[in-house]
């Protein structure tokens, strides 16, 4: 459970989570002043929400880190490591570098992260951070291959990084709430994510 000094941080995370739910409001083109830059930012914000594999992985990381580490000061390192290496992978993918096994490892990440959540697997913090960062690299590479070219690419990157952090915050808020109640919903969600990953691996898509 997060300790008392983290109360204000939990309030901030809750506010961020609520803000993330409001993102689809930005997705309505055609309003006055709707420029290419705004459109690219909107596309970036919505991009991580479009693929269930990316969305579920990031939610699993947020919930798992909040449940297995004793304070937010420790738990936050895991989603931060995911986000930073996600960006590295995205930039490498955008640069056109050949990165093998991107899709298989994204599928494997759902299986592994789902099992970690379902089993409430406790890992040393450096090990947990490195493990999720490893998978984040391939999620980022997949994003990078889909990034637009040109000067507005940085706006798109900004959008999907903000969205990524908000998704992590949403997962951490859920995990923080569950630490004070029952954890069975998180275990059930983890089993569902792992099952989805296994199905993707078996079917190849």
TrEMBL record:
It holds the Pfam family HupE_UreJ. Residues 1-27 form the signal peptide. It comes from Advenella kashmirensis. Keywords: Membrane, Signal, Transmembrane, Transmembrane helix. The chain crosses the membrane at residues 51-69, 76-95, 101-118, 125-142, 154-178. This is Urease accessory protein UreJ. It comes from the Bacteria.
């Amino acid at each position: 459970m997060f300790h008392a000094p983290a109360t204000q941080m939990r309030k901030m995370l809750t506010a961020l989570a609520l803000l993330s739910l409001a993102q689809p409001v930005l997705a309505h083109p055609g309003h006055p002043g709707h420029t290419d830059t705004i459109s690219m930012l909107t596309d970036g914000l919505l991009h991580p929400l479009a693929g269930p594999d990316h969305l579920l992985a990031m939610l699993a990381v947020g919930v798992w880190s909040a449940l297995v580490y004793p304070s937010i000061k420790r738990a936050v390192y895991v989603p931060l490591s995911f986000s930073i290496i996600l960006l590295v992978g995205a930039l490498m993918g955008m640069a056109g570098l050949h990165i093998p096994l991107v899709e298989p490892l994204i599928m494997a990440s759902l299986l592994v992260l789902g099992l970690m959540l379902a089993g409430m697997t406790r890992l040393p913090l450096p090990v947990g951070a490195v493990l999720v960062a490893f998978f984040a690299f391939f999620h980022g590479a997949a994003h990078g291959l889909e990034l637009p070219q040109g000067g507005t690419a940085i706006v798109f990157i900004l959008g999907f990084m903000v969205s990524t952090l908000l998704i992590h915050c949403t997962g951490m808020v859920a995990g923080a709430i569950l630490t004070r109640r029952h954890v069975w919903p998180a275990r059930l969600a983890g089993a569902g994510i792992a099952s989805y990953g296994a199905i993707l691996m078996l079917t190849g898509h």
